[in-house]
Design goal:
single chain, 156 residues, mainly alpha, 2 domains, two-stranded parallel sheet, 44% helix, 9% strand, flat
Length: 156
């Protein structure tokens, strides 16, 4: 995990209540152009960009989930996934992996154990995290029928 390992080693792994700092974040979003751009960049990395469907009033709802400990870990896990062609559990780094998993490296998810008889996967053809190659690989490992729906938005 590299540079993020010390951060996640020192953050409690339960979701932290960041509600008390929301007023400060909201104020900074209104007055600080750089902070607003940085915040929107983070949300764009997580959710993609589609300015036609972005509703500014939903910004406070988004703030309720990002950033907090859990979303930072998910964001980091997405980055780990992007750098690898395997789907494995969160990599805390060797020392913490031994404590959490009992092994130096995290184990892989065994998605063949998903036994739902019918599944639907919506994805975007422009998705940089789950691209078409990933969708094909996922379909090969799932035992049930997977109906894949490609949402043909140019920004999704």
């Amino acid at each position: 995990m590299g540079l993020l390992e010390p951060l996640f080693r020192n953050i409690p792994q339960s979701t932290v209540d960041l509600t008390p700092i929301f007023p400060y974040i909201a104020e900074q979003l209104e007055i600080n152009e750089f902070f607003r751009l940085l915040y929107m960049f983070g949300l764009t990395l997580l959710a993609g960009s589609n300015s036609r469907e972005f509703i500014p009033e939903n910004l406070y709802r988004l703030m309720a989930h990002f950033p907090n400990t859990l979303s930072l870990q998910i964001f980091s896990h997405m980055g780990q996934r992007y750098l690898s062609d395997q789907l494995y559990r969160f990599d805390y780094g060797p020392v913490e992996n031994i404590r959490v998993y009992g092994t130096i490296k995290p184990s892989y998810y065994n998605i063949s154990k998903i036994t739902n008889p019918y599944m639907i996967l919506w994805h975007g053809s422009m998705d940089f995290i789950a691209d078409n190659i990933d969708i094909v690989r996922l379909r090969q490992h799932l035992s049930g029928m997977l109906n894949v729906i490609d949402l043909l938005f140019e920004t999704f």
